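Good day; I would like, with your permission, to put a structural problem before you. What I wish to show you is a protein chain and, alongside it, a tokenised description of its three-dimensional fold. I would ask you to consider whether the tokens describe a fold that such a sequence might reasonably adopt. You will find the record immediately after this paragraph:
***
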Amino acid sequence: MSLPEERSSELSHVDRAGHVRMVDVSEKAETLREAIARARVRLQSRTLALIEQNQIAKGNVLEVARIAAIMAAKATPQLIPLCHPLPLTHVGVTFELQREQGLILIETSARTTYKTGVEVEALTAATVAALTIYDMCKAVDPTITLEQAYVARKSGGQHGVVEFTPEAPTR
């Protein structure tokens, strides 16, 4: 399968013959790159109270989710095809519990000095933290939903700082 000339130049992970490839970053300069990703977990208020009181049978939900997020960021190249292995210099994870809305807001950050960005690492960390919360709490709350995973901010590289805020979801 051959791609038209103009299309192949737009697809960085596809060569002119239409074959998938890993992007060659050999000639790119190393710069400080940072990304922040966010995800939300919606759950029943009773479940949120159990998490706050550390009463979930599987253990401390937020600390296990924090460890899972950090491990996931480091394992991103094993999970996402064609993703470059990066020398991460920092992975951060925070949680904000919003009792009235029945939400846990997850924010992750990833940092490196390298030739390519860390958006996928930050996003992988946020989504795996959300999945971990789901896994640890599903026995007491089968209605848990994972919502709005997105990259909120990135910096470094040729595009500089890019920020994004999604619209509020409708339910």
